[in-house]
């Protein structure tokens, strides 16, 4: 096992292994540090942060569905100053790079968040969540509209020298078109997928299960969709990909890498098994050992069609 | 807030017995959590053998036998997970995360009134045990739908220095009607300095209102749907005067006065 190279480079972000956590499922890591040393992961991705914080949605915010769950947290967060004061302070000195997930209700808000973090040495990279509604444009989701994607990614690109990961929404007709737009506007890497829009109904009460009626589907149920999108986007762009959507174990992660992901993120699986992300690291290692893979990078896009 | 670390433990089922219609007691060997658990805290349980229902379920701890490392949970069958849980047998194991959440905090020396509806009697029992030992005045009001559903009554009756009032919705035992009446009587007596409530949220709200009217500090134990159960996902928030708090780790016990109903 000692001989296997697990390190990857995600658009300039050096990770000691290809595994991070999916934004919003791991807070900033503190809650899971009771279960394992979170510095063993390739990176920590923090919960989406906006400039001054958002209240989030009404409850119920969660509904269990077949092999997955719906959430409508509504990006509740206390704002970038609180992220620095509490979460980044806690992460300081831990030997693990930090990817800050950035959200905004306007193009400028993304830039403002990045500017508030640009001098903070505790941040290693940004993941820009473009699945947010643009309040300036009547609430349209930024990540579903090519010109909006080009604008917001271009503005973020100009605001930072750090690795810029753009997180794609799967709720589009042609994911490759959006991926190309993000790449040409300056993204160093792309992450996918965010949650799939869905809903759940309580037949007995004839009411929606979520206060907001619709929410984002995640967990093993979305994995085939996520794999398909990673595979398509890998063929469409040349920047590296951070794959996610239903990853629960090492084998799932290997499948994403074969489809074209350079790194992977573990999300909903953390709720099931609080050591899931570490299990994924160890599962990848075990696979490499079994298959005689000396360098995990050999697996990226190694799907044989 | 200071909290003890969370533990994930593979717990072996010692017994899983039906106590009344839809009500079961499950005993789990979980020595580390049994050792650390405080009154009002809960465990986040993975019920084995439900491949398409992946999330854990939260259950309060009713009793903890520290010497033998055994936890007892009282649960009601309400859906797929609890239905499946009722079919599990001694010897099977399920993963628990615990102890999750905060604990009851009655003022020192307070004469305490505990009000429980249905399975809400479970998260109050370890508090009652502590208060009964302290002998500072303890009255417990227990409500359930029927006489048969009063499955925790014997354990409360066995406590020293404790008085009890019992109600049934169908009038088959004790006061006929909801336990709000005996709760109101106790509050009106002026004999208490603190109220703790657990049960269905409408009951909690009514009793909290009564306590507030009487100027008594009141704590409530709330339920929300939970994904992570460790404070990371923000699925479970409760609206409070200080903004949204996480039911799982900032609660499940809240000051009634801070809850925005
Ligand atoms: C802190 C806390 C302590 C609890 N203690 C107890 C206890 O001691 N005894 C007991 O019988 N029940 C208790 N409950 C309620 C128990 O968690 C639910 O009855 C159980 O999750 C239902 O699961 P199910 O699969 O049978 O129901 P389903 O309706 O099929 O569940 C679907 C989803 O909704 C969630 N859900 C459904 N009802 C509730 C609820 N009331 N609260 C939270 N989530 C819910 C489930 O966890 C699951 O994710 C507690 C809940 C909380 C939050
Ligand atoms: C409770 C919850 C909160 C989430 N919050 C965010 C967020 O703040 N920002 C973001 O970009 N994605 C967020 N996501 C999406 C995840 O990061 C991930 O893209 C998605 O859940 C798919 O991965 P999974 O199936 O492994 O969970 C959230 C997902 C869940 C379940
Ligand atoms: S259940 Fe995830 S924060 Fe409470």
How would you sum up this structure, described in words?
The complex is a heterodimer of chains A (305) and B (261). Chain A is α/β, with parallel strands linked by helices and 305 residues long. Helices cover 30% and strands 20% of the residues of chain A. Chain A has a single domain (8-59, 71-199, 217-299), classed as TIM Barrel (Alpha-Beta Barrel), CATH 3.20.20. An 8-stranded parallel beta sheet of chain A has the order 3-18-17-12-11-8-7-4. The longest helix of chain A has 16 residues, at 276-291. The mean pLDDT of chain A is 96. Chain B is α/β, with parallel strands linked by helices. Chain B folds into 2 domains: 2-100, Beta Barrel (Elongation Factor Tu (Ef-tu), domain 3), CATH 2.40.30; 112-221, 3-Layer(aba) Sandwich (Rossmann fold). Helices cover 20% and strands 34% of the residues of chain B. Chain B has helices at residues 31-36, 80-85, 122-134, 153-157, 180-188, 201-213, and strands spanning 7-20, 23-29, 42-45, 57-60, 63-65, 70-76, 93-100, 112-117, 138-144, 162-168, 175-176, 194-198, 218-221, 237-240, 243-246, 253-255. In chain B, the strands form 3 sheets. Chain B has a 7-stranded antiparallel beta sheet. A 7-stranded mixed beta sheet of chain B has the order 11-10-9-8-12-13-16, with helices on both faces. A two-stranded antiparallel sheet of chain B has the order 14-15. Chain B is globular. In chain B, 49% of the residues are buried. The chains are: A alpha/beta (305), B alpha/beta (261). The A-B interface holds A 24-27, 31-32, 34-35, 47, 55-56, 59-64, 66-69, 71, 73, 76, 219-220, 268, 270-275 and B 5-8, 46, 51-56, 95, 97, 224-239, 243-244, 249. Residues 226-229, 231-236, 246-248 of chain B line the site of FE2/S2 (inorganic) cluster.
